[in-house]
Amino acid sequence: MTSTRSAYRSHWGLNPDVTFLNHGSFGASPRVVLEAQRRLQDELESDPIRWLAPERDLEKKLDPVRERLSDFLGCRFEDLAFVRNATDGVNAVLRSFPFEADDEILVTSHGYNACTNAARFVAGRAGARVTVADIPFPCSGPDAAVEAIEAAFTSKTRLLLVDYVTSPTALILPLARIIEAAHARGIRVLVDAAHAAGMVKVELDALGADYTTGNLHKWLCGPKVAGYLHVRPEHQAEVRPTVISHAANTPRPARSRFLAEFDWTGTFDPTPLLAVPVALDFLENVIHGGGIEAVYAANRALALEGRRILTSRLGLVAPAPEEMLGSIVTLPLPDGPPPEIGRTDTLGQRLFETHRIEVPIVHWPAPGKRWFRISAMLYNDATEYERLGDALESELTLATR
Q1: Confidence category of residue 400, pLDDT binned at 50, 70, 90
Q2: How far apart are alpha carbons 142 and 92 in whole angstroms?
Q3: Residue 399 pLDDT > 80, yes or no?
């Protein structure tokens, strides 16, 4: 089948020979964003000392980005730090938290493996435990998620680590209700919002989580290695970056230790962060007259259309209601062999090598239990999901012979 290609595809430098349905994993930056980053890199290399020294220009360059992002994310400038990615932000909070023996960190069965690993690491050092709230999937609706988490709270639960949008199952969780339930029991909440910014409207102060961390390179389309960590004021004295550097004992004038430490963790490339405003400008203007809300709506509509195409073509039952979905969707596959250690799933390999389709095959909650996850970004087109349906139909037929 010949794809008509989205009218927006030319804004990205994606390989034209690949049907790219996996924006959710690492994002994809538009050409204009990468061009801006390269200009910034050239400027940096023209005078690295001036650029990278906090007391020279670095803080002056980061602060306007923080101002723009705090407005976009609905929070105070003073409460927003920069991190490499959401996993970095989760680690910073977990490794700063004053856990004691027998405390419990509650995660969910839909949590991101890297962040659950961080929770296990920290718990092991403190003599604490990681417990799991088993959110059902297929999921009947938001109530099921709230009830599963509430049922897992105990008197020893100190911190809840919960996703804004789950990675393996693509569910938008009812965070306001979950946070309210946790706070009513004196439990702090750390939100892994890796997928949220650029997919849904985020209002951090209104949401009320104690800590929220997210990526700026996924649905916001910034360059790779750009993330944020939002911490409520009452916790900022406690939270330290994963790299301790000069600001630990070198105060910065008129700057909190929280911002000073996260702004300078040693030599790094700040250009991904400095190019984020260009990504915001792009998304605000790419759909003429629509703003970024039109991008949210277009991507979600395309993801739901992709779901309709694939469930119809393959005879699948959608495992979640539309109200819990944004611009990524997870759908079931027949059980299959788990991938070899260090390798991708064999079906995923065949989809890429034979059909030139990039789509993740997820083994969850255990090896052999398979799902596939589609993403929808402006550069995608409905015919690409039809092409995926053709490929899956072919591959699954071959597998049963």
Answers
A1: low
A2: 29
A3: no
pLDDT surpasses 60 at 135: yes
Does residue 344 register a pLDDT over 80? no
For residue 127, the domain's CATH number is 3.40.640.10
What domain count does the chain have?
A: 2
Phi-psi label, residue 380: left if phi above 0, alpha if psi -120 to 50, beta otherwise: beta
Query: CA nearest 92: which of 209, 265, 218, 217?
Result: 265
* CA 350 to the chain's CA centroid: 26
What pLDDT is stored for residue 2 in this prediction?
43
Contact in structure between 113 and 161 (CB atoms under 8 Å)? no
| Residue 107 maps to a domain | yes
**CA nearest to 264, candidates 250, 247, 242, 239:** 247
- Residue 75 carries which side chain, given as an amino acid letter? C
Same domain, 266 and 295: no
Asked if 384 contacts 392 with a C-beta cutoff of 8 angstroms, the reply is no
Contact 280, 72 (CB under 8 A): yes
Domain membership of residue 230 (yes or no) is yes
Whether 297 and 265 share a structural domain: no
Q: Which domain holds residue 125?
A: 47-270
User: Among residues 281, 290, 292, which one has the least CA distance to residue 222?
Assistant: 281
| Phi and psi, residue 336, nearest 5° | -155, 175
The whole-number average pLDDT for the span 332-346 is 83
Pairing of strands 227-231, 80-83: antiparallel
C-alpha span between 89 and 240 (Å, rounded): 10
Residue 247 and residue 194 in one domain: yes
The closest of 330, 299, 306 to 383, measured between CA atoms, is 306
**Rounded distance between C-alpha atoms, residue 360 and residue 346, angstroms:** 11
Q: Do 227 and 162 fall into the same domain?
A: yes
Structure tokens at 92: 């910073």
The tokens for 4 are 């008509």
Residue 1 pLDDT greater than 80, yes or no: no
Bridge-based pairing of strands 104-108 and 157-163 is: parallel
**Residue 320 shares a structural domain with residue 379:** yes
Pick the range with the lowest mean pLDDT from 163-167, 182-186, 344-348, 370-374: 344-348
| Region for 342 from its dihedrals, namely left if φ exceeds 0, alpha if ψ lies in -120 to 50, beta otherwise | left
